[in-house]
Amino acid sequence: MLTEEPAKTPAQHEMAEAEIIAGGRAGDRHALNELVKRYQPAVLRVCVSLIGSRDVEDLVQDIFIKILRRLNTFEGRSALFTWIYEITVNQCRDELRRRKRRRWFSLQALPEETVERVAVEEESVSAQIEANELRDNLRRELNKLEPKYRELVVLRDLEGLGYDEIARISGTDEKLVKSRLYQARQILSTKMKKYAEAFYD
Questions:
Q1: Domains, the chain, ranges and CATH?
Q2: What is the per-residue pLDDT for 28?
Q3: Count of alpha carbons within 13 angstroms of residue 33, beta-carbon side
Q4: Fewest beta carbons less than 10 Å away: which of 85, 119, 128, 182?
Q5: pLDDT tens digit string along 109-120?
Q6: Helices (runs of H) and strands (runs of E) counted in the chain
């Protein structure tokens, strides 16, 4: 007599964070592969955003080597992904210092799925041209933001992190994070309002 196998639960299909941490610390290859698979897209996005280039493969690899080596030091005071973002941002800062770059970012190098948050319906060719010009202007203005502002915009508005998580990563308190992010958005809003008005004068 044939018996049906019990359906697998979501937990059986996907490793829980605690399993990844425990397995990674024990050197389990499946857990390590799962950690990289789960967090590599976010690490790649942040690296591209902060470095301003798609040529970040070596940097991403170095970051995951550091993550795996430091996994035993993770104390669980924050979510695992917050801890990973912290390592990623710090590694990017070091890389930028090594390159001695004055500007931290270039959104023109961001993946399309990130940039396309400024989605516009294709109403007409002229409307699409205007939308593209506005988006290009937005990229330029984001490039002009001071690093302390730009980093917050990337983490909050592009990556969707919470204020408490950003405060931990940036080494500041939530009140300062909110204040600086508000200032950054005001700067961008003022600049973009001028561009937008120019289209409809």
A1: 14-101 (1.10.1740.10), 109-201 (1.10.10.10)
A2: 86
A3: 4
A4: 119
A5: 444 444 444 444
A6: 10, 0
